[in-house]
Amino acid sequence: MNNEINEPQKIARLEAEMELAFREGDLGNTALLAWEAVTIFPDSSSVARIYIKKLLRDPYVQGITIEAFVQNSKELRESGETEELARLSALGLLRFPGHRYLSLSMMDAAQSLDRS
What we know:
mainly alpha
């Protein structure tokens, strides 16, 4: 018996989790879930793209500098807080796409968490 969740179920679950995280003000988790949706389902992630736009318009996100992201990422890597590192890196990469250190942090965190 196959216990895997099919694509419509998985994208619906990700969208529901994104909405809940956003409502709760958990911007990092919203960003991480949006990255996951866009990465796994690039053609079916229109809701994730809407949340990405909402995140990028958020005044808090707009006010964070790349230096703050990098410093916080270094501290999280050193302390071993992998889940939080993934959230911070996801949010940072939305704000500063392609930044090398944030990209490496995201890859390390995703690999440690065994997430796509």
